Amino acid sequence: MSLTLGRAGWERAVLLAMSFEALKVISAHFVFPPFSGAILWLPAGMTLAFLLRSPRSMWPTLLFAVFAVEVCSELAMGRPWGLAATWAVGNMLRTWLGAALMSRWPGGDVRFRRVQDVMGLLFLGAAIGVLPSATLGALGATTWLGLVSFWREWLVWWLSDALGTVLVAPLVLTWWPSGKRSSPPRRRLESYVLLFFVLLVGVLVFQGDTPSGSAAVSTTLPYAAFPLVIAAALRLGARGAASASAVMSAVAVEYTRLGRGPFGELTVSVSERVLSVQVFLAVLSLSALTVAAVVSERRRAETAQRVLATVGAVLAESPDWRGTLPRVTRLLVPEVAAGAAIWLRDGSDVVERVAAHGWTPEREAGLRGWFPPLPSETRSWEGAEGSGVLVPLRVRGVEVGALAMELGRGARGHKEQVLAEDVARRCSMALENARLLEEARAAVAVREDFISVAAHELRTPLATLTLRVQGLMGLLARRAGMDRFVMERLEAISQQGRRLTRLVENVLDVSLFKTGGPELQREWVDLTALVEEVLERYAVEAVRSGSTLRLTVSGGRVRGWLDRVRVEQALSNLLANALKFGAGAEVDVALGQVGRRARVVVTDRGIGIPAEARERIFGPFERAVSSHEYGGLGLGLYLTRRIAEAHGGSIHVASTEGAGASFVLELPVEPGLSLQGADSDSLPRAGA
After folding, report:
1. Angle between helices 270-317 and 150-175 in degrees, nearest 10
2. Which of 129, 236, 288, 430 has its C-alpha lying 20 to 30 A from 92's C-alpha?
3. What are the transmembrane regions (predicted)?
4. Helix (H, G, I), strand (E, B) or coil at 354
5. Which residue, among 265, 274, 442, 406, has the nearest Cα to 332 in the 3D structure?
6. Which secondary-structure segment (H or E) carries 597?
């Protein structure tokens, strides 16, 4: 690799060199003879964090800075060239190996929000990454400093570098970068209070006198600080865990260096005291980081479930994907993704982006070579701004689009992929439902067109047939000695023709009302005269069915601003319905005016209506009894309600099964009056 000579690279290299030297001076206070290395080598964690937070193009410059500052520092202390170079190479190799391993797994953007970040730091950054520095450090010490035991020296160096990595790297990685959003004042105050109590407990534990005679009691006393450190991890996350661990570690190491506290006063060898404090600090830091990572993962899982539930609700709100898919991308960012985009294939096989949020040209460039064409399976990619997932959208097994989620650097994992696939699956279902709805609407439109055309085609021969029958009846009526048998047959034909005409008109009206309803032709109508006219027209049919019609008019004549033809149609439907189901009994028609409303009540004494069917019968093609017992299409009451509502009126029914039914039709009698917003207490009841 060639050195990166850019200004940013050298500035960061100078900052790393200064930090390295400062931490080295601090670590020198933690050297316990006869060992040559400190029990806590702080620069190990600092150099690892610098590389993980820097682009790979800067790594050669930063590694050169580590090598140079170590060589210069050791030479300034009077060390031999060979020793300085050996230790410098060890520090450089340790930094490079740890960063290279952690960049691959768990990923470069390590923030300890996942348990695998903690495991990666422990095994890759600390256990394996420090092997070169421990080996070369012990080798240099035994070669140039005359130390006898290579393996004992190697163990101290390995533990020292591993502990420095575990303590310092999380502190730097969780605070750098600090983030654009600052914590609220209440959370900052909570952080300060928790860290203060961690410091206070640490001082009390390590400064006070320790029980004598029991090494077990002495070495377990420091673990009294665990609850506060764990509390910091639970409340403040990985940043709080790293900060609390660093505070407690500083207190423990300093008092141990001064020969005080549970570890400094142990009546054991120096190596055993060093090992005890190192184990304590490692367990403390890793435990806090693990707790913080577990809590963070749980919170992310809860967030993902909440987002998925909201995505499902949004997609279910409307079949119009042009409005719902952009809302889906807005839900994903920033809760579960840094950026999201959705592409769909149009009717011309052109793939176009239909929704995006947080999507930048750089993220778009990261997909080059992966998309288009549409993916047939889930793909992951690495771009300039991090990793991402590309998931196909399928409808009926065919790829119709794709969903891309940018997850940030090092955030790619199985859980993120499963989340993206789940969101894509829900979007695919919404697209399929939208297409099914479009097909259903198209089929309904075809059906409505067919019904309309068929009804219009039927009207012409029916009108011709009716006119011819009526003309023939008139001709026979004027002839003397007319055959009554022929007249009865012609009258029956005429009656069935009128019935068939009404059925055709009803079918046409259903199509008309479903597309918005007819335009009412309002005029001043004498409703009393209209009711009398309709009853007179049905008198013959009433006699034929064995029923009698009786009209009761309360008050004076009723006039209203109505569509005469439509009101007549509604009255005819109610009378025809009463005669059909009246069982040959009397049918009462009551007309009156209540306030500014006209009320027509048609009451029969027939079979009645079951309670569960009293609202259903006003639907299209609905009936309360079997069609085998009573004929008809089940459209009369539906059209009557639509006519009433078009006028601003209403219709309802009161019935007792087996004892007849009363249909109450209410219409406004003044222009512009509507019953829709009328007080329910002021509306008349059936049978009133």
Report:
1. 30
2. 288
3. 30-52, 121-148, 154-177, 189-208, 214-234, 278-296
4. strand
5. 406
6. strand 597-604
